[in-house]
Amino acid sequence: MAATDARPAPRPAARLSAREGVARQYDYWLTVYKRTWRGGVANSFATPLFYVLAMGVLLGGFIDADPDRLEGATSYLAFIVPGLVAAHAMTIAVSESTYPVMGAIKWHKTFFAQLATPLAVRDLVNAFLLFVVFRVASACAVFMLVLAPFGVFESWWGPVLAWVVQVLVGTAFATLAFGYSARLRSEEGFGLLFRLGVLPLTLFSGAFFPISNLGPVLEWVARLTPLWHGVSLSRMLCLDTVDWPLAALNAGVLVALCAIGWRWAVTGLDKRLEV
After folding, report:
1. What's the N-to-C CA distance of the chain in angstroms?
2. For residue range 186-205, what is the model confidence (pLDDT) as tens digits?
3. Which of 3, 29, 142, 163 is deepest in the core (most CB within 10 A)?
4. How far apart (Å, rounded) are the C-alpha atoms in residues 166 and 90?
5. Lowest-pLDDT range of 5-9, 35-39, 62-66
6. Which DSSP state fits 106?
């Protein structure tokens, strides 16, 4: 007897609209969130508070607050806050788009079950990414609210736009991580992603210190990284020191990465599921 085929049964020819495809998965993702929201909420409150106290308040007390050296910030706390939130968005997005994606393909095969319905690969990717974006948006919103009493924002509108930027950062990294995870055959590759991708980006994309400290060559290398664009734009908005041409470049790069990453995710999952 032939081995059981893991691929889903043929689906109807009619294709759902993108909106309807996402809407049909609402109850599934609501069920998933009901099982995990407590841990997510606790982490969203605890992480920003500890980061602010340890890095901004305690460590920042030993650093001279020179606006010329801190990109316009009047304190190290004000300098580090926007970068920390942008890096936080990246970390959440990558974490939510690695093991869960592999699990849905390799272990519990959720994607195969969903494709046995009128849903298409595009619908699966859209719904998954929207859930990740929701996680990023809620976590970054809590982070920014926790930071507000510390007096690190120079305007009321800057943090709001910075939050939008942080969500954009999370979206870009979520799409790219999804595409990588969909093509990966073993979870061992995630260690490589976190050690050689997420960690260096967190440390050397301007979140903790100005990239000018890296020297001329490495400074331009840092400028080519996706996270730097998010950190730069988020910081300018929070400090009300917006360089509009640079801000347009930062935003354009992030939007382009979202579009490229979405295509990368869809083609990767389509090829992996062989539909």
Report:
1. 24
2. 888 999 999 999 999 999 99
3. 163
4. 8
5. 5-9
6. I
Q: Which two tokens stand for residue 31?
A: 């069920």
Amino acid code (one letter) for 30: L
Mean pLDDT of 129-142: 92
Residue 37 in 3-state DSSP? helix
Using N-to-C axis directions, what is the helix angle for 76-96 and 226-239, rounded to 10°? 140
**Element holding 229 (H helix, E strand):** helix 226-239
Judge whether 228 and 142 are in contact, CB under 8 Å: no
What is the rounded distance in angstroms from the CA atom of residue 35 to the CA atom of residue 74? 42
The beta strand positions in 103-152, using DSSP E, are none
State the CB neighbour count (10 A cutoff) for residue 20: 12
Residue pointed to by tokens 């929201």: 37
Specify the pLDDT at position 44. 66
Q: Residues of the chain with pLDDT > 70: what percent?
A: 89
Contact (CB, 8 A) for 80 and 163: no
Please give the structure tokens belonging to residue 223.
Answer: 């400028």
Mean pLDDT over the full length of the chain:
86
To the nearest 10°, report the CA torsion of 85, 91, 92, 98.
160
SS3 of residue 151 by DSSP: coil
Nearest one of 247, 38, 49, 72 to 148, comparing CA atoms: 49
